[in-house]
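COMPLEX REQUEST
Ligand: zinc ion
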Amino acid sequence: MQGKKIFRCTVCNDVHFGVSPPEVCPTCQQHNVYVEIDAVEAKNITGLC
Ligand SMILES: [Zn+2]
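STATUS: Structure written out below.
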């Protein structure tokens, strides 16, 4: 996980793992809608561990 961050789409709650957020959300097609979140919040959203 080193260098990896977690981002969430503020429109559709899509979660993206990577070094930077996608320019366009692949789910809702909106631009610049990702915000960085922490692992706890990501777990709450995705239900994954
Ligand atoms: Zn989205």
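REMARKS: The radius of gyration is 10 Å. The chain has one domain: 5-46.
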